[in-house]
Amino acid sequence: MPLAEWFKRAGVGVHWRAATSQSDRGGKRVTESAFPPNFGARYNKASLGITLTHLFDGEPAQEAGLSADDCIVAVNGLRLSGDKWESLLRQHQPGDVLYVHAFRRDELMEFEVKLGPPLENVCVLIGEDGDDARHLRDKWLGA
Protein backbone atom coordinates (compact mmCIF):
# COMPACT_ATOMS: atom_id res chain seq x y z
CA MET A 1 0.00 0.00 0.00
CA PRO A 2 1.33 3.47 -0.81
CA LEU A 3 1.11 4.75 2.78
CA ALA A 4 3.63 7.56 2.30
CA GLU A 5 1.62 8.94 -0.64
CA TRP A 6 -1.68 8.70 1.25
CA PHE A 7 -0.33 10.36 4.38
CA LYS A 8 1.29 13.12 2.32
CA ARG A 9 -2.20 14.07 1.10
CA ALA A 10 -3.05 14.70 4.77
CA GLY A 11 0.08 16.75 5.48
CA VAL A 12 1.86 13.93 7.29
CA GLY A 13 5.30 12.56 6.45
CA VAL A 14 6.24 8.90 6.89
CA HIS A 15 9.68 8.06 8.25
CA TRP A 16 10.96 4.46 8.49
CA ARG A 17 13.73 3.48 10.86
CA ALA A 18 15.16 0.44 12.57
CA ALA A 19 13.83 -0.60 15.98
CA THR A 20 16.02 0.33 18.92
CA SER A 21 14.82 -2.70 20.93
CA GLN A 22 12.18 -5.40 20.90
CA SER A 23 9.79 -3.11 22.79
CA ASP A 24 10.13 -0.23 20.28
CA ARG A 25 6.71 0.33 18.69
CA GLY A 26 7.55 3.54 16.85
CA GLY A 27 5.78 6.83 17.22
CA LYS A 28 8.89 8.88 17.86
CA ARG A 29 12.02 9.87 16.02
CA VAL A 30 15.27 8.48 17.32
CA THR A 31 18.51 10.32 16.75
CA GLU A 32 20.54 7.38 18.01
CA SER A 33 22.60 5.94 15.17
CA ALA A 34 23.59 2.65 16.84
CA PHE A 35 20.78 0.24 16.10
CA PRO A 36 21.38 -3.42 16.90
CA PRO A 37 22.03 -5.75 13.97
CA ASN A 38 19.15 -7.92 12.78
CA PHE A 39 18.83 -11.36 14.41
CA GLY A 40 15.41 -11.89 12.83
CA ALA A 41 13.33 -13.12 15.76
CA ARG A 42 11.16 -12.02 18.67
CA TYR A 43 11.62 -13.63 22.06
CA ASN A 44 10.55 -13.88 25.67
CA LYS A 45 12.92 -14.03 28.62
CA ALA A 46 13.22 -17.53 30.07
CA SER A 47 14.81 -18.95 33.20
CA LEU A 48 17.66 -20.39 31.12
CA GLY A 49 18.06 -17.58 28.55
CA ILE A 50 15.51 -16.57 25.92
CA THR A 51 12.77 -18.50 24.15
CA LEU A 52 12.12 -17.58 20.52
CA THR A 53 8.46 -16.77 19.90
CA HIS A 54 8.46 -15.60 16.26
CA LEU A 55 11.01 -15.98 13.47
CA PHE A 56 10.79 -13.82 10.39
CA ASP A 57 10.91 -15.43 6.94
CA GLY A 58 14.28 -15.20 5.25
CA GLU A 59 15.95 -13.48 8.21
CA PRO A 60 19.16 -14.64 9.98
CA ALA A 61 17.69 -16.82 12.78
CA GLN A 62 15.44 -18.75 10.41
CA GLU A 63 18.19 -19.06 7.79
CA ALA A 64 20.46 -20.60 10.46
CA GLY A 65 17.82 -23.24 11.27
CA LEU A 66 16.39 -21.92 14.53
CA SER A 67 12.67 -22.37 15.19
CA ALA A 68 9.96 -20.89 17.36
CA ASP A 69 10.06 -22.34 20.89
CA ASP A 70 13.84 -22.91 20.73
CA CYS A 71 15.40 -21.79 24.02
CA ILE A 72 18.76 -20.07 23.50
CA VAL A 73 21.00 -20.77 26.49
CA ALA A 74 24.45 -19.70 25.28
CA VAL A 75 26.04 -17.45 22.65
CA ASN A 76 29.69 -17.72 21.60
CA GLY A 77 30.33 -20.17 24.44
CA LEU A 78 28.92 -17.96 27.21
CA ARG A 79 25.70 -18.53 29.16
CA LEU A 80 22.92 -16.16 28.06
CA SER A 81 20.80 -14.12 30.43
CA GLY A 82 17.51 -12.85 29.00
CA ASP A 83 18.29 -9.42 30.43
CA LYS A 84 21.54 -9.24 28.45
CA TRP A 85 20.30 -10.31 24.98
CA GLU A 86 19.78 -6.86 23.47
CA SER A 87 23.04 -5.49 24.88
CA LEU A 88 24.83 -8.55 23.51
CA LEU A 89 23.42 -7.83 20.04
CA ARG A 90 24.57 -4.19 20.27
CA GLN A 91 28.15 -5.40 20.75
CA HIS A 92 28.11 -6.88 17.25
CA GLN A 93 27.94 -5.62 13.68
CA PRO A 94 25.98 -6.85 10.66
CA GLY A 95 27.92 -9.75 9.16
CA ASP A 96 29.21 -11.03 12.51
CA VAL A 97 28.51 -14.70 13.22
CA LEU A 98 27.03 -15.78 16.54
CA TYR A 99 27.49 -19.38 17.68
CA VAL A 100 24.18 -20.08 19.37
CA HIS A 101 23.41 -23.05 21.63
CA ALA A 102 19.69 -23.72 22.03
CA PHE A 103 17.46 -26.41 23.39
CA ARG A 104 14.80 -27.72 21.03
CA ARG A 105 12.62 -29.70 23.37
CA ASP A 106 15.27 -31.82 25.19
CA GLU A 107 17.98 -31.72 22.51
CA LEU A 108 20.85 -29.23 22.73
CA MET A 109 21.68 -27.88 19.27
CA GLU A 110 24.24 -25.45 17.88
CA PHE A 111 23.57 -22.86 15.17
CA GLU A 112 25.69 -20.30 13.32
CA VAL A 113 23.70 -17.11 12.88
CA LYS A 114 25.12 -14.44 10.58
CA LEU A 115 23.64 -11.13 11.74
CA GLY A 116 22.02 -8.90 9.16
CA PRO A 117 21.75 -5.13 8.85
CA PRO A 118 19.10 -3.43 11.00
CA LEU A 119 15.69 -3.62 9.37
CA GLU A 120 13.80 -0.38 8.86
CA ASN A 121 10.53 -1.80 10.11
CA VAL A 122 9.35 0.90 12.53
CA CYS A 123 7.18 3.74 11.26
CA VAL A 124 7.09 7.28 12.61
CA LEU A 125 4.46 9.73 11.33
CA ILE A 126 5.61 13.35 11.24
CA GLY A 127 3.50 16.44 10.82
CA GLU A 128 5.04 18.30 7.89
CA ASP A 129 5.82 22.02 8.17
CA GLY A 130 3.91 24.78 6.44
CA ASP A 131 0.43 26.22 6.36
CA ASP A 132 -0.72 23.94 3.52
CA ALA A 133 0.32 20.80 5.41
CA ARG A 134 -1.27 22.09 8.63
CA HIS A 135 -4.52 22.84 6.76
CA LEU A 136 -4.55 19.31 5.27
CA ARG A 137 -4.00 17.74 8.72
CA ASP A 138 -6.73 19.87 10.30
CA LYS A 139 -9.15 18.88 7.54
CA TRP A 140 -8.22 15.22 7.87
CA LEU A 141 -8.49 15.19 11.68
CA GLY A 142 -11.61 17.35 11.72
CA ALA A 143 -9.95 20.07 13.85
Task: Please identify which CATH superfamily of the largest domain we are dealing with.
Answer: PDZ domain
CATH architecture of the largest domain: Roll
**What is the share of helical residues?**
10-25%
Q: Compute the number of structural domains.
A: 2
- Strand percent estimate: 25-35%
Largest sheet: 6 strands, antiparallel
What series of H and E elements makes up the topology? HEEEHEEHEEEH
Remind me, CATH topology of the largest domain?
Pdz3 Domain
Structural class: alpha+beta
Radius of gyration: 19 Å
Tell me the distance between the termini: 26 Å
General description of the model:
The structure is a single chain. The protein is an alpha+beta fold. It has two domains: 3-33 and 120-141, no CATH class; 41-114, Roll (Pdz3 Domain), CATH 2.30.42.10. Helix content is 20%, strand content 32%. The chain has four helices and eight strands, in the order αβββαββαβββα. The strands form two sheets. Strands 2, 3, 4, 5, 6 and 7 form a six-stranded antiparallel beta sheet that branches. The protein has a two-stranded antiparallel ribbon with strand order 1-8. A hairpin with a 2-residue loop joins strand 6 and strand 7. The longest helix is centred in the C-terminal third of the chain and has 11 residues, at 131-141. The chain is elongated, with a radius of gyration of 19 Å. The two termini are 26 Å apart. 20% of the residues are buried.
Compact description:
The protein is of the alpha+beta class and 143 residues long. It is 20% helix and 32% strand.
